[in-house]
Write a structure and sequence with these properties.
This protein has 280 residues and is an alpha+beta fold. It is 54% helix and 13% strand. It is elongated, with a radius of gyration of 24 Å.
Length: 280
Amino acid sequence: MSYDEIANAIASGFGQFSFGDALDILIIAWLFYKLIVWTKETRAYQVLKGFAILYLSYFISQLLSLYTLSAILGAIVQSGLIVVVILFQPEIRRAFEHIGRGKLFDRSIWAGFASDQGEIVRELHKAVLSMARRLVGALIVIEQSVALGDIISTGTRIQGVVSGALLENIFEPNAQLHDGAVIIRNDTIIAAGCFLPLSDDMDIARELGTRHRAALGISSVSDSITLVVSEETGIISVAQDGKLVRYIDAKALKDLLDGIYQKERGTSFAWFARRIKNGE
């Protein structure tokens, strides 16, 4: 096809372009934008990106005439709507609730707090060691790249700067929120009293309680790092990538927190992998 033929085809297409076509494109673009906004703070956002990659792969396989791959991806794509409804059921339900309340355009916007990262590390370090010493159970989830909006929605909004005193008050025995998990995003305690998915791994040691199973559960479905303090023994544990490391001492805890908050993202993972390899 020559350049003139391509130019004529494009010109012919634009000649038939109507106001209705433009409106159709704008509505679809708006719906995609709202879908991204609604899911960006939930784990569903990662699933949504996975579907986008799947559809792109399907398109490329057709373009390159990869018939077998195209047939397999086509079968998955055709059942995509059913899969989306199943996976996004909580998000779809909340979206319809917003529409029913006339709050389709509402979205919470949270102001961040500028804090020194070293101070955040010190406050977390102090609070965890203090609760371990006093045998106060704690479950602290530090959000990473996978947003935990669906978990946050199960708890009570706090929106407070991370501080040792606030964390210890939340987990104080008989306090209203002490049984759930605290979710930390950057330097902010976003919510407390949150419910986490429990791990169904049958190989988990029997002496580990619900907090440890919850820590393993959330670490299996996200890249979060979860700190656990046992109320029976005061032992500090950390869960990441579906693995649990126990008997974390003060120095190891400081190294881990430094790796999270001092922008050395590889540090915490390398430290964690080393502990797993050593069987600690």
